Amino acid sequence: MVAALTLSGCASFQNAGTQMSTLGGLLTPHRIDVQQGNVVVREQVQALQPGMPRAQVQAILGTPLLASAFHADRWDYVFTLVRQNQEPQQRRVSVFFAGDALQRVEADELPTEQEFVAALQAQRAAGRIPALQASDEQLRAFRERHPLPEARPEPAPVPAGTFPPLEAR
Protein backbone atom coordinates (compact mmCIF):
# COMPACT_ATOMS: atom_id res chain seq x y z
CA MET A 1 0.00 0.00 0.00
CA VAL A 2 2.76 2.44 0.98
CA ALA A 3 4.76 1.49 -2.12
CA ALA A 4 1.77 2.15 -4.37
CA LEU A 5 1.24 5.58 -2.83
CA THR A 6 4.93 6.39 -3.16
CA LEU A 7 5.04 5.36 -6.82
CA SER A 8 1.88 7.30 -7.66
CA GLY A 9 3.43 10.32 -5.94
CA CYS A 10 6.51 10.00 -8.18
CA ALA A 11 4.35 9.99 -11.30
CA SER A 12 2.49 13.07 -10.10
CA PHE A 13 5.77 14.81 -9.33
CA GLN A 14 7.14 14.00 -12.79
CA ASN A 15 3.98 15.34 -14.44
CA ALA A 16 4.19 18.50 -12.33
CA GLY A 17 7.79 18.98 -13.45
CA THR A 18 6.73 18.73 -17.07
CA GLN A 19 3.95 21.24 -16.51
CA MET A 20 6.38 23.64 -14.78
CA SER A 21 8.99 23.39 -17.55
CA THR A 22 6.39 24.26 -20.20
CA LEU A 23 4.68 26.97 -18.13
CA GLY A 24 1.46 25.03 -17.85
CA GLY A 25 1.66 23.71 -21.40
CA LEU A 26 1.69 27.21 -22.93
CA LEU A 27 5.31 27.05 -24.07
CA THR A 28 7.39 24.15 -25.26
CA PRO A 29 11.18 24.09 -25.14
CA HIS A 30 12.99 24.26 -28.47
CA ARG A 31 14.48 20.98 -29.60
CA ILE A 32 17.14 21.03 -32.27
CA ASP A 33 16.91 18.90 -35.40
CA VAL A 34 19.13 15.83 -35.17
CA GLN A 35 20.37 14.31 -38.43
CA GLN A 36 22.63 11.28 -38.38
CA GLY A 37 24.07 9.21 -41.16
CA ASN A 38 24.02 9.41 -44.93
CA VAL A 39 21.18 10.89 -46.95
CA VAL A 40 20.56 8.39 -49.75
CA VAL A 41 17.76 9.13 -52.22
CA ARG A 42 16.05 6.95 -54.81
CA GLU A 43 18.01 8.40 -57.76
CA GLN A 44 21.31 7.38 -56.17
CA VAL A 45 20.23 3.77 -55.68
CA GLN A 46 18.84 3.64 -59.23
CA ALA A 47 22.27 4.72 -60.53
CA LEU A 48 23.90 1.60 -59.04
CA GLN A 49 24.49 -1.29 -61.42
CA PRO A 50 25.63 -4.84 -60.59
CA GLY A 51 29.34 -5.27 -61.27
CA MET A 52 30.33 -1.69 -60.32
CA PRO A 53 33.61 -1.45 -58.39
CA ARG A 54 33.54 -0.34 -54.74
CA ALA A 55 35.14 3.02 -55.56
CA GLN A 56 32.35 3.86 -57.99
CA VAL A 57 29.66 2.84 -55.47
CA GLN A 58 31.34 5.04 -52.86
CA ALA A 59 31.45 7.93 -55.35
CA ILE A 60 27.66 7.65 -55.79
CA LEU A 61 26.54 6.92 -52.20
CA GLY A 62 29.37 8.40 -50.15
CA THR A 63 31.31 6.78 -47.34
CA PRO A 64 29.29 4.04 -45.65
CA LEU A 65 28.20 4.62 -42.07
CA LEU A 66 28.94 0.99 -41.20
CA ALA A 67 31.69 -1.06 -42.79
CA SER A 68 32.57 -4.04 -40.63
CA ALA A 69 35.79 -6.04 -40.75
CA PHE A 70 33.66 -9.13 -40.04
CA HIS A 71 31.36 -8.40 -43.00
CA ALA A 72 33.82 -7.00 -45.53
CA ASP A 73 31.43 -7.58 -48.42
CA ARG A 74 28.64 -5.43 -46.94
CA TRP A 75 28.30 -1.67 -46.51
CA ASP A 76 25.41 -0.12 -44.59
CA TYR A 77 24.10 3.39 -45.08
CA VAL A 78 21.78 4.44 -42.24
CA PHE A 79 19.95 7.75 -42.03
CA THR A 80 17.84 9.17 -39.19
CA LEU A 81 16.27 12.61 -38.86
CA VAL A 82 14.45 13.74 -35.71
CA ARG A 83 12.64 17.08 -35.89
CA GLN A 84 10.39 18.77 -33.36
CA ASN A 85 6.66 18.17 -33.99
CA GLN A 86 7.33 15.68 -36.81
CA GLU A 87 7.56 11.93 -37.07
CA PRO A 88 11.18 10.69 -36.98
CA GLN A 89 12.53 9.51 -40.33
CA GLN A 90 14.73 6.43 -40.53
CA ARG A 91 16.06 4.73 -43.65
CA ARG A 92 18.54 1.95 -44.36
CA VAL A 93 20.43 0.92 -47.49
CA SER A 94 22.69 -2.15 -47.53
CA VAL A 95 25.11 -2.74 -50.41
CA PHE A 96 26.58 -6.23 -50.94
CA PHE A 97 29.76 -7.02 -52.89
CA ALA A 98 31.31 -10.13 -54.36
CA GLY A 99 35.01 -9.32 -54.16
CA ASP A 100 35.32 -5.78 -55.57
CA ALA A 101 32.12 -5.87 -57.66
CA LEU A 102 28.64 -4.76 -56.56
CA GLN A 103 26.38 -7.79 -56.23
CA ARG A 104 23.04 -6.45 -54.93
CA VAL A 105 21.37 -3.59 -53.02
CA GLU A 106 18.72 -3.85 -50.28
CA ALA A 107 16.97 -0.62 -49.35
CA ASP A 108 13.95 0.72 -47.51
CA GLU A 109 11.43 2.79 -49.45
CA LEU A 110 13.47 5.88 -50.35
CA PRO A 111 12.20 9.32 -51.31
CA THR A 112 13.30 11.11 -54.45
CA GLU A 113 15.64 14.04 -53.96
CA GLN A 114 12.75 16.42 -54.59
CA GLU A 115 10.54 14.66 -52.01
CA PHE A 116 13.34 14.73 -49.44
CA VAL A 117 13.97 18.47 -49.90
CA ALA A 118 10.21 19.17 -49.72
CA ALA A 119 10.03 17.22 -46.43
CA LEU A 120 12.87 19.33 -45.00
CA GLN A 121 11.11 22.55 -45.96
CA ALA A 122 7.74 21.42 -44.60
CA GLN A 123 6.35 24.10 -42.34
CA ARG A 124 5.84 23.11 -38.76
CA ALA A 125 2.38 23.44 -37.31
CA ALA A 126 1.95 27.13 -36.66
CA GLY A 127 0.63 27.99 -33.23
CA ARG A 128 -1.18 31.14 -32.20
CA ILE A 129 1.20 34.10 -32.37
CA PRO A 130 0.99 36.20 -29.19
CA ALA A 131 0.35 39.92 -29.40
CA LEU A 132 3.66 41.74 -29.13
CA GLN A 133 2.22 45.07 -28.04
CA ALA A 134 0.66 45.85 -24.66
CA SER A 135 -2.54 47.87 -24.37
CA ASP A 136 -2.72 50.98 -22.16
CA GLU A 137 -4.70 48.98 -19.59
CA GLN A 138 -2.05 46.23 -19.50
CA LEU A 139 0.72 48.82 -19.05
CA ARG A 140 -1.19 50.52 -16.21
CA ALA A 141 -1.74 47.16 -14.46
CA PHE A 142 1.96 46.33 -14.84
CA ARG A 143 3.02 49.68 -13.34
CA GLU A 144 0.71 49.08 -10.38
CA ARG A 145 2.23 45.66 -9.73
CA HIS A 146 5.81 46.86 -10.30
CA PRO A 147 6.18 50.48 -9.18
CA LEU A 148 9.37 52.30 -10.07
CA PRO A 149 11.77 52.82 -7.16
CA GLU A 150 11.80 56.33 -5.79
CA ALA A 151 14.57 58.52 -7.11
CA ARG A 152 17.44 58.91 -4.66
CA PRO A 153 19.47 62.11 -4.53
CA GLU A 154 22.94 61.93 -6.05
CA PRO A 155 25.69 61.58 -3.43
CA ALA A 156 27.66 64.74 -2.83
CA PRO A 157 30.91 64.86 -4.78
CA VAL A 158 34.01 64.07 -2.77
CA PRO A 159 36.35 67.06 -2.67
CA ALA A 160 39.68 66.53 -4.40
CA GLY A 161 42.73 66.04 -2.28
CA THR A 162 41.18 64.02 0.53
CA PHE A 163 42.70 60.76 -0.65
CA PRO A 164 46.38 59.91 -0.21
CA PRO A 165 48.41 60.03 -3.42
CA LEU A 166 48.70 56.75 -5.29
CA GLU A 167 52.39 57.19 -5.99
CA ALA A 168 55.15 58.41 -3.71
CA ARG A 169 56.43 61.87 -4.57
From TrEMBL:
GO terms for cellular component: Bam protein complex. Residues 37-105 form the Outer membrane protein assembly factor BamE domain. Keywords: Cell outer membrane, Membrane, Signal. The keyword ATP-binding does not apply. GO terms for biological process: Gram-negative-bacterium-type cell outer membrane assembly; protein insertion into membrane. Transmembrane segments: none annotated. Residues 136-169 are annotated as: Disordered. It is found in: Cell outer membrane. Residues 137-153 have a biased composition (Basic and acidic residues). GO terms for molecular function: protein-macromolecule adaptor activity. Part of the outer membrane protein assembly complex, which is involved in assembly and insertion of beta-barrel proteins into the outer membrane. Part of the Bam complex. Belongs to the BamE family. This is Outer membrane protein assembly factor BamE. It comes from Serpentinimonas raichei.
